[in-house]
Amino acid sequence: MSDTRQPFHPPSGFPWPDGKKFAASLTFDVDAEAGALAFDATFHRRMSLMTHQSYGPSVAVPKLLAMLEHHDIRATFFVPGYTADLYPDMVRAIVAGGHEVAHHGWMHEKTTSLTDAQEAEMLDRGLESLDRVGVRPVGYRAPWWEYNYRTTDMLLERGFAYDSSLLDGDVPYRFTSGDGVARDLVEIPVDWALDDWEQFAFYPEWTGSGLIESPRKALQMWSDEASVAATAGNCFVLTNHPFISGRPTRLSALSELVDHITSLDGVWFATLQQIAEHTANTLSDIRIHHRIPDPGPQPGQGGDGHPLGHLHDNL
Ligand SMILES: [Zn+2]
Q: Which domains does the chain show, CATH number per domain?
């Protein structure tokens, strides 16, 4: 019988660097206008909505960079190509601050509705836009975290080292698409509970439920997540969007969260690139992500009422 007087900690054996017990990474998806325009291209006519999105690169990112500098930590910024084209000086400022810039599509595309050729074009246009500001990314995060089974090989062909869009881990792992593929990627998993969109995002006739949570509540929630990551030896990856979390009270709460994480024993504050390099150099096991077989027609689903009918057949 186990000793119930001791708190439960799940088994963990991830080999973090010497002296470190868990990893923490702040990531910022600079969706800006692209995040809204991918949803509906006619939104470019809605000036107020466009300013809601441009608040991110124009107002929030400089404040976020100052906050990160204050705490002397480096973060990872996922920048769609369209955002880089509109705000090249912002990308340069992120790089000048010592932070990582990584790939996040070109127009924050809905990847589940793209053909193979369209997804390849998205990746290449994103790379070209980042190249114009001197960035060669090693990391990718699918827009809306919608990574396709085919994406792995596309990323390997383009020299990427890691992805951060999948949701099947508490710690990073190495993976590939199937037998016979010599190279592999590192996955640094994410979690919707660690995304500011679910807490705060709202814009009429575009996104959100209308409920905007208190930053106090999000701070408590994310602090608890970090505390458990520390005791479990996990990888804490927070996803924020500058147009959302750069607002004053949320930025203040985010700074408090960094104080909390910094106080935890054995923290390794790192960029995703650093975590990916460590994982690739340390782990030997490589997972294979097989496609889930099509289950075919199911009882009670008449006609063409497939539950995933909105997804494209090309996946
Ligand atoms: Zn995004």
A: 28-288 (3.20.20.370)
